[in-house]
Amino acid sequence: MASILKVDKLDPQSGTALELGTSGDTISVPSGATLDISASTLTPPATMPASSGVNLTALNATNLGSGTVPTARLGTGTASSSTVLYGDQTYKAEPGGVNTPAFEAYRSSSYNITDATAEKVSFDTEVFDTDGDYDHSTNYRFTPQTAGKYYVYINLMMTGESNDDFEQGYSYIYKNGASVANTHISAYGSNAFREVVFNVYSIVDMNGSSDYVEAWGMYDDNDLTSNPRVHGGATFSRWGAFKIIE
C-alpha cells in the first residue's frame, strides 16, 4: 500500500530549489485534480512530448521557426500550381496576366483583293498570341475565352495601280460578322495616290466564349484595270487586340 503524506505546503529545506522524485520516476496528477500554475513560470523541456493542441489558444505565428503550414490549413479549395489563395481564404484559379488574352498578327505577303468590295483580311502570321485565341490559318478571327472589354486595332495598307485614281476605301473592325468600327478615306481626281494606310481602333465588349472580331478592308479604284492589293510585310499591315478591363 502506497504511503500518503498529508501536508499543506512543501518548501525546500534550504535555498530555493525543490525537487520531486528521482530521475526515471513518474509523477502523476490524478483525474479530476487541478494543477494551477497560472501565477507561475513554466520552463518546458527543449523537446515537447507529443500531445493534442486542440486547447492551445493565442499562438503567435511569428514564433514559427521551421517547417511549413499545410495548404489545407490555409484555406478551402484545392491548392495547386494553377490556383492562388484569395483574401476570403479560398483557393481559386490564378488570374490571367495583365492585359491578356492578347495577340498581334501581320500579313506575311501582299495579295489581291476584289475592287470596291469589303472582305476579310487574312492576317496569317502571329507576332504573339498569349492564350491561343487567334486563328491565323483558317478564319483569321480572335475569339477570346475571357470576358471583358478589349482594345482592338488595325493598321492596314492597301495598294492600287501605279498612277492610280483612288476613290475611297475602308478598314473595319467586325464583331460576330458585323462592322462595329471603321475608318473611311476618300480622294477623287486623277493620280490621287496609290498606297493608302487605314488605321482603325475601338473598344469592343466580348463575352469570353463565342464573341469574335475580324479585320476587314475595302479599296475602291475609280478606273481599275487590275485588282488592288493588301500590302504585306511585318512593318505594314498588322492588327491585334488585348483585354483592358473585366
Topology:
Elements: E1 83-85, E2 91-93, E3 102-106, E4 111-112, E5 119-120, E6 125-129, E7 141-142, E8 148-159, E9 166-175, E10 178-186, E11 195-206, E12 213-221, E13 229-230, E14 238-245
Characterize the main sheet.
7 strands, antiparallel
Name of the top-level CATH class of the domain at 102-245: Mainly Beta
Number of strand segments: 14
Shape: rod-shaped
- Counting H and I runs of at least 4 residues, what is the number of helices? 0
CATH architecture of the domain at 102-245: Sandwich
Beginning-to-end CA distance, first to last residue: 80 Å
What's the helical proportion of residues? under 10%
At CATH level 3, the topology of the domain at 102-245 is Jelly Rolls
Low-confidence stretches: none
Q: State which percent range the strand residues make up.
A: 25-35%
What string gives the helices and strands in order? EEEEEEEEEEEEEE
From the alpha-carbon coordinates, what is the Rg to the nearest angstrom? Answer: 38 Å
Mean pLDDT: 87
Written account of the structure:
By secondary structure, the protein is mostly beta strands. Among the domains are: 69-93, no CATH class; 102-245, Jelly Rolls. Helices cover 0% and strands 34% of the residues. The chain has no helices and 14 strands. Strands 3, 4, 6, 8, 11, 13 and 14 form a 7-stranded antiparallel beta sheet that branches. Strands 5, 7, 9, 10 and 12 form a 5-stranded antiparallel beta sheet that branches. A hairpin with a 2-residue loop joins strand 9 and strand 10. The radius of gyration is 38 Å and the shape is rod-shaped. The model has no long low-confidence stretch (mean pLDDT 87).
